[in-house]
TrEMBL record:
It comes from Serendipita vermifera MAFF 305830. This is Uncharacterized protein.
Length: 573
């Protein structure tokens, strides 16, 4: 976003207005004094320029007369030559007597010219001697006027430099009294980012073949179009509703590819077709310059495979990221076959997220898989999670809806490369059976089921995995339901985990309510080292006074994306 001059939407308070008006009056007087100096210098330059013009003409005329005298001194036609030059005499500043004396020379004609006598020669020499003196005076006056012009021009430049900071202060004071009449682009950017992001994450309508969530907003007004067109992040998503009878507009595909960020593209597809991949998708794959970072979100609406087929034989899709969501939570074999066939079409998967899908049958996952996510928003049955926990996993997200559907592991499973784990308290039994020697980031969130109860000892089940944890994120409201017995204070969770996280550097609290005073008290007495970064986002219960205490105990504090204090390393940079 380009930097736009800030103007407040609110006028200054009465106290601020009084101070600002006094400052404005003072700076206006200072500017007036400077303006007078500039005006006087400009007048002096104008007068000097006018004098220079007059003196230059006089100098030229005097020079013409003296030059004519030199040329005609030994010729009989000197009277004719002097006559031509004598026309300049009346325009000079010579005395009347001297002009008449020079004109007497010009009265001689060529026919009557005779050798000059000594008396006449003496008079001429005297006259031209006076002209030479006058010529010297004119040259001196010319030098003086040129000096005046140069000095005054330099003075105006210095005055202008002195005026600049004064004018800047005046402009800023006047801005405080000017309520803007339009919304700044920065504000539109924040609003449109939220709105388009929400539209992007919703599944496309079944009757819409292809759409770009950001595109309709560019037709509202010039301000929106300017902001959206200059923000590639708003173009990252495209909605796709495939069928085998129609092809999407390829111009829209090309527009999306040209505007979307290269490493953040997302395809949201509602899949209701079967058989070969439509040519439109092939066109998109061919046009995309980089496939490695594209994320594929698939909403599966089919409930069975074509007759006589045991799997989907469509061409494979070499996209590395798949988020699969089903429109049916049925556990029928037909639905499961459809889901498994979709996954098998992605042989190079690096990231797989299953939403409301029970992987009841064993799925052969590729060896390239590094991220696995399984989430439920409705009641569900259990399944064999051990079939999905491959040694290549680097991050895992498990968010079940009810504890009875949470899978259990029959034996201990070691995940040597797992660095990030995102869970709810309902995964208590699963966590006890995991061995995570490389875990660095732990994310704990509340279950979507507000009626869920937390099993006893779930926090303690995390202790064996916390030795190398450097990042901790707690995402849930502090009170999940009305019964105070079952309510959970996440500050208490943090306090308990802090005893077992010697390498903890960053802590983030997202959403809900926290007790800022209690958190500040704990940080002030924490003997396990200073946190590098504390993040508080979308939380209530934290006051400005709490923030002033936080900055004393952490390297950097971020509250609603506002950094209150930077670390020493960042300050040195």
């Amino acid at each position: 976003m380009e930097h736009i001059k800030y103007q407040s939407n609110l006028p200054p308070s009465a106290e601020e207005a009084e101070v600002l008006k006094a400052l404005l009056q003072q700076k206006t007087k200072e500017r007036s004094v400077i303006d007078k100096k500039i005006s006087q210098a400009q007048d002096d330059i104008a007068s000097a320029t006018q004098a220079l013009d007059l003196l230059t003409r006089s100098s030229a005329r005097l020079y013409s007369i003296l030059k004519a005298n030199q040329i005609a001194s030994n010729t009989r036609s000197q009277s004719a030559r002097l006559y031509t030059s004598s026309q300049e005499l009346h325009a000079t500043e010579l005395s009347v007597a001297l002009i008449k004396e020079c004109e007497s020379i010009c009265l001689l004609t060529t026919d009557t010219a005779t050798p000059l006598g000594e008396e006449v020669k003496s008079s001429l020499n005297t006259a031209f001697g006076r002209l030479e003196v006058l010529m010297a005076s004119v040259e001196h006056a010319l030098r003086q006027q040129r000096l005046i012009v140069n000095v005054k021009s330099s003075s105006i430049q210095l005055y202008s430099i002195d005026k600049l900071p004064v004018q800047t202060i005046i402009d800023k004071v006047l801005e405080r009294f000017s309520v803007i009449k339009r919304v700044p682009d920065e504000v539109w950017y924040e609003i449109l980012t939220v709105r388009i992001s929400k539209a992007s994450h919703s599944w496309p309508r079944s009757d819409t073949l292809i759409s770009i969530p950001a595109l309709p907003y560019t037709h509202v007004c010039r301000s929106w179009r300017r902001v959206i067109n200059s923000s590639p992040s708003m173009w990252r998503a495209i909605h796709w509703s495939m069928n085998c009878t129609k092809e999407p507009n390829r111009n829209l595909i090309d527009l999306w590819i040209s505007r979307s960020p290269e490493h953040e593209r997302r395809i949201y597809e509602r899949q209701s077709y079967f058989g070969q991949v439509p040519a439109g998708l092939s066109h998109m794959q061919f046009q995309l310059p980089i496939h490695e970072k594209l994320q594929y979100y698939l909403y599966q609406t089919r409930k069975e495979l074509p007759a006589g087929q045991d799997r989907d034989y469509s061409s494979p899709i070499n996209f590395p990221s798949l988020s699969l969501e089903s429109s049916s939570s049925s556990s029928s074999s037909r639905v499961r076959s459809v889901q498994e066939s979709v996954i098998h079409r992605f042989p190079l998967l690096e990231s797989l997220h299953l939403q409301d899908i029970i992987p009841r049958n064993k799925i052969c996952l590729p060896s390239t898989l590094t991220h696995l996510g399984i989430g439920f928003r409705v009641p569900h049955g259990t399944y064999r999670l051990s079939d999905l926990l491959t040694p290549t996993l680097e991050s895992i997200q498990l968010t079940h809806f009810i504890d009875s559907g949470t899978p259990t592991l029959d034996e201990k499973i070691r995940l040597p490369k797992l660095r990030t784990m995102d869970i709810t308290p309902l995964e208590y039994e699963t966590i006890k059976k995991l061995n995570l020697p490389s875990l660095e980031k732990l994310i704990i969130r509340a279950p979507l089921n507000k009626a869920a109860t937390f099993p006893t000892g779930w926090v303690e089940s995390l202790f064996p995995h916390c030795a190398n944890v450097a990042n901790l994120e707690l995402i849930w409201p502090s009170i999940l339901q009305s019964d105070p017995v079952l309510s959970l204070d996440r500050l208490q969770v943090f306090f308990e985990l802090r005893l077992h996280t010697p390498k903890l550097a960053t802590v983030e609290f997202s959403s809900g309510r926290i007790d800022g005073n209690a958190l500040a008290d704990f940080l002030g007495t924490d003997q396990r080292g200073r946190l590098e970064h504390l993040v508080i986002d979308e939380c209530i219960g934290v006051s400005r006074m709490d923030c002033e205490r936080f900055v004393q105990y952490v390297g950097k504090l971020s509250v609603y994306r506002t950094v209150h204090k930077a670390t020493i390393a960042e300050e040195s940079e």
